[in-house]
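Tutorial handout. Part one gives the primary structure; part two gives the three-dimensional structure as tokens.
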Amino acid sequence: MNRAARPARASARPLWALQTPEGVALSFAIPPGGERVAAFVIDILLMVAIFVVLTILLLVTGIAAQGSALGGGSVLLVLWVLGGFFLRFFWFTLFECGARGATPGKRRQGIRVASRSGGPLTPAMIVARNMLREIEIFLPIAMLSYRASQGLADTAMAFAGIGWTGVFLLFPLFNKQRLRIGDVIAGTIVVQVPRPVLAPDLAADLAIGAGPAGTAQFSFTDAQLDVYGIYELQRLETVLRGARPQIPGRPRKDDDPVVIVGKAVRAKLGLPSAGDDLALLQAYYAALKARLERSVVMGRRKVDKFDGA
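Part two.
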């Protein structure tokens, strides 16, 4: 194995393939455990910061002092316990019920929650997976914290709590899709968010002097450039991206998109035949794109060839 092949194989991530109800086949990368842990830590830190701010507000407004006076600190403890539960539950639930299906931590790591069936992510799924998180992580931690505060925690209980949490935390390592127990029950999965990759600017490649030979010989009047709009520009770009260079000595077939579109453009602009129309279409694309961009800057937007006719 050469050195160049090692990074590619090391960076390869397992894929999760599905077929949507519409019959579309999709595949998503499964994020490694480190990214999910980092996302969870970010969310916990944000919740702790919010909880600290709320506690300071309670102290400033005097509610905490009144609770301590009435119940010897028990009222304040109840407020903290309930506040912590509602904060972490609604934090994960509300964010994951959104259109992005991700908490701030997940968005920072580029991951999100999805439905394993390929359908929409329902609130019932989100509630189920987050209720299980309480049993997986927060319940044993809360039990140990309470018993320790009362002086009743012992070594056996500590090991039991750590073992309980450890089993649930390590469960994703033993399945290919990295599912939590909550994901198994709720029918959800955490996937990598596909990052859109922009195609290179076609107009930059087709600029005068940078395109194929013969492109610089074409020039167009303002009236010829005003014939088409943004819609036609996009369709022309699709044709040009899929166009193949002409083989010397072999003319293009009549059903070639370059021939069809070139004939239509020449007829619309009143231009004579120029042999292979690829250079003509490339030059016209670059000139039309530049003119439409200038028009948008000036506040005029031509949607298609019928706009303003």
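Part three, for discussion. Residues 1-11, 208-215 have pLDDT under 50 and may be disordered. The first helix runs from residue 5 to 11.
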